[in-house]
Amino acid sequence: MIVIRNEAIADIPVLHVVKQEAQQEKLPLILFVHGFTSAKEHNLHFGYLLAEAGYRVILPDALYHGERAQRLTDEQLRLSFWNIVLRTIGDIEQIKNELCSGGLVQEERIGVAGTSMGGIVTFGSLAVYPWIKAAVSLMGSPYYQAFFDVQIEMVKSMKRKIPLTDQQLENERQRLAPYDLSLQPEKLRGRPLMMWHGQRDSVVPYHYTYEFYQQINPFYENGKLKFISDDEAGHKVTRAAFLQTVDWFAQHV
Could you give the CA distance from residue 184 to residue 239 in angstroms, rounded to a whole number? Predict the structure, then answer.
């Protein structure tokens, strides 16, 4: 039987998914991050499948999402995108630390995954956390600064005002550099990484993910790097991708 607990870990609202009989055991841990404007419960199917496979699974709400939602306008939320990403990268380490302190995690077996914004968080986490053993990005992008530039150009093309000076924008861009895995792919250190992306994705550019795969592929051993391209999919993860994510962690975490 799978137990789903709605609780707070490190003061962050999460869904904690685990087999009932293993609740107090040290287990491998998977942290799974949702997408922009989504919430933790929308990825519960991932939690269930991974818990069935023997993992302790934590699905957190990102800042301004789910139980952490505030009365922000759509514009205010969009302008907070990168703050949310960086805050979530910090959140997952806090959650990991609290669970490890409680003796509930096999610390050498921790994976991170996410969809869309959660995939972007996954790449950024790989850049700064050596404790991640393996990861899966679904529709994410490792190109923080380049994606930031695309977002700014898109706003300008729509003739919408950006409430930041050019210097403030440059400061925001530079703040992303330590988390931009495309600038420091050596931080991967050969850790198992699976990427899934639909070629028809109109939200997170497909070509960034594929270019990154081509960049790092020569440095990987067989079986530790996987890129799955879906020529029919847009910005929506398929069931096949769900199942491949579970299989990936079963092999590598």
Answer: 32
Say whether pTM exceeds 0.85.
Answer: yes
Beta bridge partners of 114: 33, 137
User: What counts of helices (H) and strands (E) characterise the chain?
Assistant: 8, 8
- Exposure string (b/e) for 149-174, b if CB count within 10 Å is 16 or more? eeeeeeeeeeeeeeeeeeeeeeeebe
CB 33 within 8 A of CB 122: yes
Q: Is the Cβ–Cβ distance between 166 and 224 less than 8 Å?
A: no
- Whole-angstrom distance, CA of residue 92 vs CA of residue 207: 27
Query: Do 19 and 3 form a contact (C-beta atoms < 8 A)?
Result: yes
Percentages of the chain per state (helix, strand, coil), in multiples of 5: 45, 20, 30
Neighbours of 60 (CB within 10 A): 30
Alpha-carbon dihedral 58, 62, 64, 66, rounded to 10 degrees: -30
CB atoms within 10 A of CB 187: 16
Extract the tokens encoding 84.
């949310």
148-160 pLDDT tens trace: 998 888 877 766 7
